[in-house]
């Protein structure tokens, strides 16, 4: 019964507060705005942080937490020209010997998958497009989470017999064959025909991770057996254009190693780095990417990011609180007479404190509520921001790393951040409302009644 | 005859800067139930100080003030609030209504601060309406103060002073801001309340108004200079 009475008292006090606040709609609204944006930014910041975290996790999952990726890297130019002064051909990158070394000598390596990539023009009838030709093994399909739309993927038999078969990625198939069924037809690559045996389904491009791994587009690929590629195309990739001539000799572009146990990944990476150092003296024509390490780095960066963003959001909440305090102090001065009247009619100091504190809390609380609603819309707001930014800023730049990160980022509202942000806003109401409310309560009733 | 209120050798000292001022220098008055007293005096005579003490808005430096059988002079701030709420009804010169409230809501205000905060139920709502009708504002219960004339506002204040059924009604220059016609209306209302048995203590400096009270107390230099009308 007394609990019910208590509730009805609270209700009455809140009604009273609302009535006073509605008296100055614009003023209350503007004061509230500070809290609205403060709460909104807290939720938005956390949502962006969460989005970035999920994005990073997804990327690492795509790469595989038990995988280590070793890639060939074209050495920096000045170094290269010094090395190959007397040669037209630039030799760099992973060798087949490296592959043998890594796959045979390290016991924790379960599986090693080599890849060779060349970009070449491909034709079907009169249609031509530049494709990334990927020489690979049957494991490539599962490793990259690719799926077949029709036909089959490259088989071990293809490897053994070095057959001229190929599997097309979805966009390649669409551009070259348009409305025809590609399976059973053949594609012409570098003057040789390759029978199409399968087509993969479209796959989202993987995003770059922190500079050490560039993003990868999968939809304009053609997959052929690695051995076929070696026999038909060789290791030399010659590029003639506008009178200049350059040639690169690369044996393998990438080796993906699957490690037996998650805990063994980092130690194995150390072993791999050491063994490669011995065969690659210059040490700058390959890179070892360990998704697990990337995840750790990304987490660290994200923590710093979150702390900085969180502080900014907190500052805006505090500024909002100061705004509330300011307006409440003005309100107390303005309503000194009312306070005197209430005191004369029997209000205790506590009643006055409660009244003004409730007003501040209602103000901050409704601001918080609106902020939470705005916060829930973060993903849409961000989407809008993204399309505007893409239109005006990244149009020409295209593939800069930042814009890539930005477009792939999808904020995820953290459910716990909603009550948290709302609670903070109410807390701000209490903290910043306490002083004005107490100064109102401390007024001498006689003085207050005399106030004009 | 029982007393509604009583002051015994009431004294009040102020510090005006560093100079002590004796605003009241020993005032003793008995207020029997049903009394209607007009307190008169020029400014600086101590009548405002006396009114503040009678209204339990302040504590005396020395002496006693007994209202409703309780000595107010040594009460805490919260206890004073309770006394003001239960035993005293205020009527001010400038009405002192809460501007954002309607007539009914203004009359209701003292009910918000009753001991234990009981719920304002049907019975109370009914009483508020009756009071509004009694002071002749039955048609204007939802009006706000700025929509009312001075006389009407003062009538709201009278209704408000009665809502908690107080021991005494304190009127501080109740007609000071009104023209002579409304002055008459308000005084008639107070007289009627007095006739019904209410104890009224009124501060005024208008002889014409003071004359209507049962007795007059004239103050000068912090003491009672005499009783009865002092012409001029």
Fold and architecture overview:
The complex is a heterodimer of chains A (452) and B (232). Chain A has 452 residues and is α+β, with helices and mostly antiparallel strands. Chain A folds into two domains: 10-60 and 296-450, no CATH class; 74-284, no CATH class. Helices cover 57% and strands 18% of the residues of chain A. In chain A, helix 2 runs antiparallel to helix 10, helix 2 packs across helix 12 (349-376) and helix 10 (291-334) runs antiparallel to helix 12. The radius of gyration of chain A is 33 Å and the shape is elongated. Chain A starts with a helix and ends with a helix. Chain B has a single domain (3-227), classed as Rossmann fold, CATH 3.40.50.300. Chain B has seven helices and ten strands. In chain B, a hairpin with a 2-residue loop joins strand 1 (3-16) and strand 2. Classes of the chains: A alpha+beta (452), B alpha/beta (232). Chain A binds chain B through residues 5, 8-9, 12, 19-20, 23, 337-338, 340-351, 445-446, 449, and chain B through 52, 55, 57-58, 77-78, 81-82, 84-86, 90, 92, 96-100, 109-110, 112-114, 117-120, 160, 164.
**CATH level 4 superfamily of chain B:** P-loop containing nucleotide triphosphate hydrolases
CATH topology-level name of chain B: Rossmann fold
Major β-sheet annotation of chain B: 6 strands, mixed
Q: Distance N terminus to C terminus of chain B?
A: 33 Å
The CATH first-level class of chain B comes to: Alpha Beta
Structural class call of chain A reads: alpha+beta
Question: Any idea what the radius of gyration of chain A is?
Answer: 33 Å
Q: Estimate the global geometry of chain A from the Cα principal axes.
A: elongated
Strand content of chain A: 15-25%
* Proportion of helical residues of chain A: 55-70%
Q: Note the total helix count of chain A.
A: 17
Q: What general outline of chain B do the C-alpha atoms trace?
A: globular
Supply the number of helical segments of chain B: 7
């Amino acid at each position: 019964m007394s609990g019910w009475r208590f509730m009805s008292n609270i209700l009455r006090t809140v009604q009273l507060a609302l009535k006073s606040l509605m008296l100055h709609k614009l003023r209350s609204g503007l004061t509230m705005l500070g809290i609205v944006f403060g709460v909104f930014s807290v939720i938005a910041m956390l949502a962006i942080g969460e989005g970035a975290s999920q994005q990073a996790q997804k990327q690492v999952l795509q790469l595989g937490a038990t995988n280590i990726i070793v890639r060939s890297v074209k050495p920096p130019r000045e170094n290269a020209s010094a090395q190959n002064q007397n040669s037209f051909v630039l030799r760099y990158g992973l060798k087949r010997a490296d592959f043998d070394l890594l796959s045979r000598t390290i016991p924790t390596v379960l599986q090693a998958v080599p890849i060779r990539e060349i970009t070449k023009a491909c034709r079907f009838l009169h249609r031509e497009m530049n494709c990334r030709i990927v020489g690979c093994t049957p494991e490539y399909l599962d490793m990259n989470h690719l799926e077949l739309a029709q036909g089959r993927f490259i088989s071990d038999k293809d490897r053994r017999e070095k057959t001229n078969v190929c599997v097309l990625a979805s966009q390649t198939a669409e551009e070259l064959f348009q409305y025809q069924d590609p399976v059973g037809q053949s594609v012409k690559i570098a003057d040789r025909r390759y029978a199409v045996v399968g087509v993969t389904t479209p796959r989202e491009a993987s995003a770059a991770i922190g500079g050490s791994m560039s993003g990868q587009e999968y939809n304009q690929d053609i997959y052929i057996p690695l051995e076929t590629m070696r026999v038909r195309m060789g290791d030399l990739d010659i590029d003639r254009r506008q009178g200049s001539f350059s040639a690169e000799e690369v044996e393998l572009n990438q080796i993906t190693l699957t490690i037996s146990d998650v805990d063994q990944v980092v130690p194995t990476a150390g072993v791999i780095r050491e063994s490669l150092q011995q065969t690659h003296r210059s040490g700058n024509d390959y890179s070892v990417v360990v998704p697990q390490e990337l995840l750790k780095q990304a987490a660290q960066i994200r923590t710093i990011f979150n702390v900085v963003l969180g502080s900014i959001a907190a500052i805006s909440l505090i500024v909002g609180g100061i705004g509330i305090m300011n307006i409440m102090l003005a309100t107390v001065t303005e309503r000194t007479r009312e306070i005197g009247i209430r005191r004369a009619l029997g209000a205790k100091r506590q009643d006055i404190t409660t009244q003004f504190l409730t007003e501040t809390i209602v103000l901050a609380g409704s601001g918080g509520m609106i902020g939470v609603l705005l916060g829930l819309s973060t993903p849409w707001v961000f989407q809008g921001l993204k399309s505007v930014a893409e239109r005006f800023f990244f149009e020409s730049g295209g593939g800069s790393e930042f814009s890539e990160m930005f477009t792939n980022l999808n904020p995820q509202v953290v459910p716990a951040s909603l009550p948290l942000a709302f609670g903070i806003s109410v807390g701000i109401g209490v903290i910043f409302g306490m002083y004005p409310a107490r100064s109102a309560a401390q007024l001498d009733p006689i003085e207050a009644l005399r106030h004009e | 005859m029982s007393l509604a209120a009583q002051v015994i050798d009431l004294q009040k000292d102020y510090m005006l800067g560093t100079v002590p001022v004796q605003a009241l220098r020993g005032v003793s008055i008995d207020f029997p139930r049903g009394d209607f007293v007009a307190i008169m005096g020029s400014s600086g005579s101590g009548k405002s100080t006396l009114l503040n003490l009678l209204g339990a808005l302040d504590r005396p430096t020395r002496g006693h003030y007994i209202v409703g059988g309780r000595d107010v002079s040594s009460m805490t701030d919260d206890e004073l609030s309770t006394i003001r709420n239960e035993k005293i009804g205020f009527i001010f010169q400038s009405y002192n209504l809460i501007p954002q409230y309607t007539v009914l809501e203004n009359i209701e205000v003292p009910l918000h601060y009753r001991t234990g905060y009981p719920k304002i139920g049907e019975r109370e709502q009914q009483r508020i309406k009756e009071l509004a009708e009694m002071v002749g504002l039955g048609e204007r219960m939802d009006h706000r103060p700025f929509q009312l004339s001075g006389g009407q506002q003062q009538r709201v204040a009278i209704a408000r002073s009665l809502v908690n059924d107080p021991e005494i009604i304190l009127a501080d220059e109740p007609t000071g801001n009104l023209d002579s016609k409304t002055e008459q209306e308000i005084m008639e209302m107070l007289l009627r309340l007095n006739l019904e048995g209410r104890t009224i203590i009124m501060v005024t400096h208008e002889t014409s108004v003071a004359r209507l009270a049962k007795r007059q107390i004239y103050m000068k230099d912090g003491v009672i200079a005499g009783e009865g009308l002092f012409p001029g």
